[in-house]
């Protein structure tokens, strides 16, 4: 057997790794993009939870509802919707936001929500501010 005969089978598969990589690379990019989108959604969810908790604590202490709402919006992700309610027994804050990937404006958004409740401290009146329920 000559050296040329030994090299012939390897020549046929030459470049196959490049072709396989080119075929798999788009799928890998889609998986990476989906992972990044999921991380962004989880981050927004955690920010909503933190904002709702802080708002419920402030509302239960008797802070003005507009001030509570402003504080929640400062902590919540951009574009969040906030609903603050307070009764004689319970203060409740709901925060929701739609998360859309920055790189995919045509992709659907995911809405994340968080709500927190806190027992109203004694002496706090059940007051509803303008724009609140």
UniProtKB/TrEMBL annotation:
<keyword id="KW-1133">Transmembrane helix</keyword>
<dbReference type="InterPro" id="IPR049790">
    <property type="entry name" value="Rv3655c/TadE"/>
</dbReference>
<feature type="domain" description="TadE-like">
    <location>
        <begin position="15"/>
        <end position="57"/>
    </location>
</feature>
<dbReference type="InterPro" id="IPR012495">
    <property type="entry name" value="TadE-like_dom"/>
</dbReference>
<dbReference type="Pfam" id="PF07811">
    <property type="entry name" value="TadE"/>
</dbReference>
<keyword id="KW-0472">Membrane</keyword>
<feature type="transmembrane region" description="Helical">
    <location>
        <begin position="21"/>
        <end position="40"/>
    </location>
</feature>
<keyword id="KW-0812">Transmembrane</keyword>
<protein>
    <submittedName>
        <fullName>TadE-like protein</fullName>
    </submittedName>
</protein>
């Amino acid at each position: 057997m000559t050296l040329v005969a030994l090299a012939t089978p390897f020549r046929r598969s030459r470049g196959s790794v490049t072709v396989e990589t080119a075929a798999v690379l788009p799928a890998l990019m889609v998986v990476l993009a989906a992972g990044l989108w999921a991380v962004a959604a989880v981050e927004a969810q955690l920010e909503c939870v933190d904002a709702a908790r802080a708002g419920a604590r402030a509302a239960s202490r008797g802070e003005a509802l507009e001030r509570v709402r402003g504080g929640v919006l400062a902590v919540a992700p951009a574009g969040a919707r906030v609903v603050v309610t307070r009764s004689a027994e319970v203060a409740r804050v709901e925060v929701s936001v739609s998360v859309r990937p920055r790189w995919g404006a045509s992709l659907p958004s995911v809405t994340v929500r968080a709500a927190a409740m806190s027992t109203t401290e004694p002496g706090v009146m059940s007051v509803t501010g303008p724009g609140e329920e």
